[in-house]
Amino acid sequence: MASCLSSSPSASSARKGPLVSSPPSSSPSDLPALHIITVATHRDGYLTSLIYSSTLLHADINVLYWRQKWRGFGTKLMATLDFCRQVPPGDVVMLTDGFDTVLLQPKDIILRKFLEFGGRIVMSGESTDHRFPFFDRLFLMYHDCIFRTDLKTHWPKPLPYASKNVDLRRVNSGGVIGFAKDIVRVYSDADYWVNDQRYLSNIFLSNPHKDITVDYNGAIFCVYTSERDLKFLSFEEAEKQARHAVPSFPDEPSHRPSLPPAPTFARTAFGGVLMDTRTNEVPCVLHMHCRRNADSLTDRLGLPRGENILSIRSYLWYAFFSVTGTVFTDKASGTKWAMALVSTTLSCLSFLGLALNLLACGMRWMNEKNGFSFLRESIWYPIYERVAPVVYVHSTSHKGGGSGAMKDEDSDILEMEERMREGQRSMIGDKSQSHYHVLGYAIYDLLCIILGEVWSVCTAGMSWVLDTAEQFRGIFILGAILGVSTLILMIHFIVGWRPRDSLDENEEEEPAMEKAGQNKHKKNA
């Protein structure tokens, strides 16, 4: 059984709790209980910030699997399933990632926003938007190779209530909230070694919005992508700018009893709120997806900074469990993922080889046009004549002020420049100079020798690399064509060239047929 570690503060150390801005009369009197949980085996990332935010908001978060063995991303599914079996079926349970989330709003705001989704399990949404269309489709293809098993299914369009400024149509398992009984039913086939996001994505795609829906507007879960998408506002500013869109579903029965709209936000101990500038929503949970650094936001909220955010070890473990939970559990997905990885690697290496070919051609052209001589005469020698005297003066100066001390560095630099121009580059034989000058010249000459040897080795290695690249130019061209062609074909068959519109064709054809019928009716009239 999963161990629990509550973060509820003592009465002496607790700070002032959140103050709900909405009048008490507008709040439903029979709200179910809300349990907030996370899964973490050790302290890392923003776990301390998450517990600290829970303390400030009196959210009493439960940390599951503390100091236990992590068995894969399915651990989150199994821990949530075990917890939901222990609480009343009518209670609400919310899971957040342990290492990259913080709470922003108190329980009652979270609960009332969740109830507006009609009892469905709500997951946070994410997007793969990129400024360049090809890379947008490439990232989406990688995403679907891992998280979408059936290529006949497609990510549905965001619901009409969602803002047009965001496209959060893909589910993200970093934030999940639902009734305990529904989570037990949906998670019944889960396993430790399955990838939780892949598992929930397939359930969502099999019948969108039936059991699972997406928080398209980020009213509960906000996936952090860039600091410019969020703005910290005072409570007074938020009351003027923040807006909350009530979710609506096309198949929602008209007789369903409606609840009063949830308040946009509550006045909390943070002294302000974070508003999503794209939707004007005030999220309840901030999710720093893929271990993004959000220290500037946590500083503004008065929360501790993240730990080991850019740790290579954490990224490697994340990649390992992602692969073992997706590629190794399904042969078809493993084949697609391997093809995508090999094609990408082949394309990158081939383009690198072609770039080296271009560099070799450029260097050959420079050599034929005496370009290197020009650079040496106009750039290298002037820099050398200015830097060498400075190095000499600083290497022969003596803090004790003895006979070897240099009293006027500017005059010495000018003297050295004159001597170097006349070809008198060694002063070792000058008896008027102290041993400090001799030592300075020795160090300087030694550095010149070392740099010369290093430069010779580098130029020899670069020449070999460029010659080899030219010899395999044809192979690089063939590899680039093969790799890019494979990626293009995979994009075409997995996501298509219009992934934002890759929906059920009936959804697109119906309005077109209705519009055609209306035009025909007008023409006949």
Automatic annotation (TrEMBL):
Residues 1-14 have a biased composition (Low complexity). The keyword Transmembrane applies. The chain crosses the membrane at residues 337-360, 441-466, 472-495. Keywords: Membrane, Transmembrane, Transmembrane helix. The keyword Membrane applies. Residues 1-29, 504-525 are annotated as: Disordered. PANTHER family: EXPRESSION SITE-ASSOCIATED GENE 3 (ESAG3)-LIKE PROTEIN. This is Transmembrane protein. The lineage of its organism: Eukaryota, Sar, Alveolata, Apicomplexa, Conoidasida.
